[in-house]
Here is the input.
Amino acid sequence: MSTTVLDVPSGTPARVATPRPGDRRLGRLSLNQRSIASWSVAQTVAGCVAAGVPSVGLWREPVAAAGLAVSARMVADAGLRVSSLCRGGFLTAAEPERQRDALSDNRRAIDEAVTLGTDTLVMVVGGLPAGSRDLVGARRRAEDAIAELVPYARARGVRLALEPMHPLYAADRGVFSTLAQSLDVAERFAVDEVGVVVDTFHLWWDPVLPAMIRRAGPRIASFQLADWITPLPPDALLSRGVPGDGHIDFAAITGMVVDAGYRGDVEVEIFNGDLWAAAGSDALETIIRRYVELVAPHLLA
Amino acid sequence: MSTTVLDVPSGTPARVATPRPGDRRLGRLSLNQRSIASWSVAQTVAGCVAAGVPSVGLWREPVAAAGLAVSARMVADAGLRVSSLCRGGFLTAAEPERQRDALSDNRRAIDEAVTLGTDTLVMVVGGLPAGSRDLVGARRRAEDAIAELVPYARARGVRLALEPMHPLYAADRGVFSTLAQSLDVAERFAVDEVGVVVDTFHLWWDPVLPAMIRRAGPRIASFQLADWITPLPPDALLSRGVPGDGHIDFAAITGMVVDAGYRGDVEVEIFNGDLWAAAGSDALETIIRRYVELVAPHLLA
Here is the structure.
């Protein structure tokens, strides 16, 4: 199952017509803006409106480039929901002054979430500090930093959504590697203070995933979609596939998330060089078709 | 921490002199022959004898190329131990006839282990069949096949050593992804029937690794070493680093394995393009130096 981006899936699903704006199957779809990396906030908003996608997942960098207040107004004027802001985190520094800077930056991210009108800040907690092999220490520092941020976030109505990352990224991106581990941290806090992200790309391989999604229940703060493709593309950071191009059973995982009670938006978040090279509107059309084919039917069950 | 193969580690350890044959620090070192892929069985045997490495991990393909009986005699005549045979497995086929073929091939692998004088057959259970997204089914078939092989292996004094593979390989190589999952399967059988492989590359990221290594205890049938390097090399199958070149804390994991009671050979198994491109004797010298520096001291604790 190689990448067949911008084409019909190589696997079993049949082609579907692209739904029109207003199609109720799109009612919970959110476009994470990093799926179409070339688009500014303005282009993302316009593209979603044109295609009938009612929700967006925003990233801090393009929001900053467009201006925070301007971005917030564009999204609100367009009537779009903001399913999440990506991302806080990077809380594993060993030096106290660097950790203080990271905490300040995370407080700014919480403020930005408020301005943008989302209650969900995705947290990618960070990898090992350069030169360090102390994975236990990095995990402990991340956990301590989450605890320090919770009062600030709670006071502003923002939930910290811990994102377990594929173990592929344990060294350089996220030392929270499983849903179980993220829940162990999240459960120290109230349900509306700290949640978790269920991202199919990061978690599909986990033998205890069904039990952990059940356990997560109301802690599921975000449900994100990307496929696992083989061979793994050379750049591990751009290795996510469009749903249908890889090995993940989206019906099964969507069913677990629905059964756990999740009723929120479903974000398509794909980092993929081929998708990024395509015209944005073509990429979005492919994303919508795959979502309608592979995921939306299982949200209605 | 990039690959600095054939040089001193980029991290903390200080250079050590290469130990001479007979050095007691080499007493438990095993060279997995895939670490020096260009070497035949004869070259591997000669190289280990010259360097004072008392044990080898053999692979079926080079053994077949040299001849099974010839290989067994070479190893025995040289006075080397065979710490394991790699590998059985690939037991996830959905079609009954393909599964029957796989079982037959695994019985041959068990026979080869006996001939070569090892009681440990490493099992890489296989990935998803082509076109399948049924991870649960693939895992169940692998487990059923292990159960079917156990009586044959037990009667010949061979232990099946289940190898949990990094989740990176769940789709295309091994659907047993964690030590916990492998132990769930192994514990259906007697300790001397089914064990597990603790490979640092595959397992280092696991948040529950210390508890699972304790749980494994006498089920640890093999302890294998390779480092996790970043950025991940473009070919995910050749992404293992020489200990010291990456992010893994070998002292910590070796300590866990020792505390769990493991007293067997320690196999260095590295799939790495740079290492494979080097002269075999240079590669082996680097492997030995790193082992003596980073692992051997913690075996004596």
About this structure: Residues 29-226+246-267 of chain A form a domain with the TIM Barrel fold (CATH 3.20.20.150). Confidence is low (pLDDT under 50) at residues 7-14 of chain A. The first strand of chain A starts at residue 29 and ends at 32. Chain A has one domain: 29-226+246-267.
